């Protein structure tokens, strides 16, 4: 399954926040390599820095020092236009709070990442249908996102993360707002994505992820450091 | 970015968030409506006055004493005729006649059948009148407001004026002036000049003022000097000065409204700015989310700019159309009273439709630029922050 190509490389990464004149170090000297097709779980309690690390990998935040490389492209140092393009093409993101446009339907939410892709509407529609099918939410595609259950919202977020066919899927506390059944269903979908060769990084403190049969690595984090 | 996909998503957002957009369109439309109405009225009045002034004589001279106009001697007409370059010298008799019961007044204007200039002016007011018949007997042409007012006081066909000597002078109504002339002639009564003299107390050797033309406009400045040298108590006004004073009056009124409008617009822009920057957190989250999903700053700005342009254009078009109907079809109730001032007599003015491209584009610029800026500046500020921070 895995090969030796490094999908994500993190080198000497630091992230410090500034609050009222005080410096708060959130990530300290992170070094991590994640190979193509690998499934990595960032494990730690709240405040351990795993969400910040995920944001830096996605290019949603800028490091204080160090760098993040996505297939050798330094996403943290690229100008906005290139970083956005890289994010749109190579990274699918699943958020803890789903972050859907509540006034839009499931299908419309899944369409959003492709609007700037340059694809024609017909091609976009084909990709959207495929993603909805993979996330097992096709039957709800005309329903407004605000009317969905937590599990359905999560599956919509998965479809949206998959629609551009990215190589990397980043999940931030993906089961924090789901019940046990929906959490297990989510893990099943992740397993399917893993078999498709996607590189998956999950930031979580949910014990359900401790015993995944497809997971390659657990990266424990404490106080902004990998231990 | 594929244009179809972009427009598809834009339409989707506009339709799905119609409540938000509808309220913004409604408020902006009212602002455009107010501004357009004011500018339409002021343009229309200016146009009507300019059209009227076009047929007015080039110069008006009158006699003054202690800064007040007194009757002008008719013999001045002959002296004016002797000046090289002067033509169409016409004495004019006019004045206010107060209708005693409620202190309303009419503007009495005497016209001379023998004078070509008088005919020309009269023809502007009445197009299908037998002028010869009008000058036979004691008759008058009355403005719509005069007709209405006299009728309300049971003077259906004639009215008995009281002369300065305390005698009654009965004058029959010959015809009513057309409603298109209401702006200028609502309280006007046109009479043969001799009859006007009798009612206003002028002798045959006196007039209110004397009009004349100087076809060569290069001579106008010199003419003023020549006339001033003619008599020490001669007061002269040329057509350009009259035009300027009218323009100043309505520019002033339009200017006051413009200031009020700018204050209103600034308030609206401030509300929009707050809505998009600090207060409206869901808008920030949406922008952050779009960025997180791979939209570049440029793409977000392009989207928000186009969305704003659509809202601005729709409210502009609707506001202007509404203003057009309000001013030119309904006659601008309420605003009309403010613009035309306290009317002496009830007046129903119909504004001549004037669509000036420069006015329309000014409205668009005055309204659209602050609007777009107040939306795009906060959007830009949110877009350039890290998406993670914007989504918080």
Model description:
The complex is a heterodimer of chains A (227) and B (392). Chain A is of the alpha/beta class. Chain A is built from six helices and ten strands; from the N terminus they run E-E-E-H-E-E-H-E-H-H-H-E-H-E-E-E. Chain A has helices spanning 50-58, 80-90, 106-111, 121-134, 150-162, 180-195; strands spanning 6-19, 22-35, 39-43, 65-70, 73-74, 91-94, 168-172, 199-204, 217-222, 225-226. In chain A, strands 6-7-8-3-9-10 form a six-stranded mixed beta sheet, sandwiched between helices. In chain A, strands 2-1-4-5 form a four-stranded antiparallel beta sheet, covered by helices on one side. In chain A, helix 4 (121-134) crosses helix 5 (150-162). Chain A is globular and about 45 Å long. By secondary structure, chain B is an alpha+beta fold. Chain B folds into two domains: 3-51 and 245-391, no CATH class; 91-206, no CATH class. In chain B, helix 10 packs parallel to helix 14. The longest helix of chain B has 41 residues, at 239-279. Chain B is elongated. Chain B starts with a helix and ends with a helix.
């Amino acid at each position: 399954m895995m090969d030796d190509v490094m999908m994500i490389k993190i080198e000497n990464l630091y992230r410090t926040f500034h609050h009222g004149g005080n410096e708060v170090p959130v990530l300290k000297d992170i070094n991590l390599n994640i190979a193509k097709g690998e499934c990595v779980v960032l494990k730690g309690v709240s405040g351990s820095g795993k969400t910040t690390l995920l944001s830096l990998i996605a290019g949603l935040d800028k490091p204080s020092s160090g760098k993040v490389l996505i297939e050798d492209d330094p996403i943290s140092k690229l100008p906005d236009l290139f970083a956005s393009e890289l994010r749109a093409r190579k990274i699918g993101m699943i958020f803890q709070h789903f972050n859907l446009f509540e006034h839009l339907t499931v299908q419309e939410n899944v369409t959003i990442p492709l609007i700037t892709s340059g694809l024609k509407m017909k091609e976009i529609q084909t990709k959207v249908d495929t993603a909805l099918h993979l996330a097992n939410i096709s039957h709800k595609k005309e329903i407004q996102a605000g009317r969905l259950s937590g599990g359905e919202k999560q599956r919509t977020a998965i479809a949206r993360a998959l629609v551009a066919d990215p190589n990397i899927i980043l999940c931030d506390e993906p089961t924090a707002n789901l019940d046990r059944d929906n959490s297990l269903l989510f893990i099943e979908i992740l397993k399917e994505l893993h078999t498709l060769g996607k590189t998956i990084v999950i930031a979580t403190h949910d014990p359900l992820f401790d015993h995944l049969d497809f997971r390659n690595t657990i990266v424990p984090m404490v106080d902004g450091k990998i231990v | 970015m594929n244009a179809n996909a972009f427009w598809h998503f834009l339409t989707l957002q506009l339709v799905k968030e119609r409540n938000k957009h509808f309220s913004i369109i409604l408020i902006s439309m009212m602002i455009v409506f107010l501004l357009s109405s004011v500018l339409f009225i002021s343009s229309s009045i200016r146009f009507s006055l300019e059209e009227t002034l076009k047929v007015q004589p080039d110069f008006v001279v009158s006699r003054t004493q202690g800064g007040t106009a007194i009757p002008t001697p008719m013999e001045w007409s002959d002296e004016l005729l002797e000046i090289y370059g002067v033509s169409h010298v016409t004495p004019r008799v006019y004045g206010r006649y107060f209708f005693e019961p409620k202190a309303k007044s009419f503007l009495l204007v005497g016209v001379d059948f023998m004078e070509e200039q008088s005919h020309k002016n009269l023809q502007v007011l009445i197009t299908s009148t037998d002028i010869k018949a009008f000058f036979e007997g004691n008759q008058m042409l009355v403005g719509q407001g005069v007709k209405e007012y006299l009728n309300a006081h049971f003077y259906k066909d004639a009215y008995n004026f009281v002369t300065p000597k305390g005698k009654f002078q009965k004058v029959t109504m010959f015809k009513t002036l057309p409603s298109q002339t209401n702006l200028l002639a609502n309280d006007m009564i046109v009479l043969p000049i001799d009859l006007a003299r009798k009612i206003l107390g002028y002798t045959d050797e006196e007039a209110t003022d004397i009009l004349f033309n100087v076809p060569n406009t290069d001579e106008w400045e010199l003419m003023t000097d020549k006339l001033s040298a003619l008599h020490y108590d001669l007061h002269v006004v040329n057509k350009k000065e009259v035009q300027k004073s009218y323009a100043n009056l309505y520019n002033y009124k339009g200017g006051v409204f413009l200031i009020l409008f700018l204050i209103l617009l600034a308030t609206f822009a401030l509300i929009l700015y707050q809505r998009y920057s600090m207060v409206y957190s869901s808008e920030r989250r949406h922008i952050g989310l779009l960025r997180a999903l791979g939209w570049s700053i440029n793409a977000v700005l392009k989207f928000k700019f186009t969305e704003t342009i659509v809202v601005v254009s729709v409210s502009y078009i609707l506001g202007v159309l509404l203003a057009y109907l309000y001013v030119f079809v309904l006659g601008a109730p309420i605003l009309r009273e403010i613009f035309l001032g306290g009317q002496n007599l009830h007046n129903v003015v119909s504004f001549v439709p004037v669509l000036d491209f420069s006015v329309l584009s000014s409205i668009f610029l005055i309204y659209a630029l602050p609007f777009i800026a107040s939306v795009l500046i906060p959007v830009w500020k949110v877009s350039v922050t890290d998406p993670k921070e914007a989504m918080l």
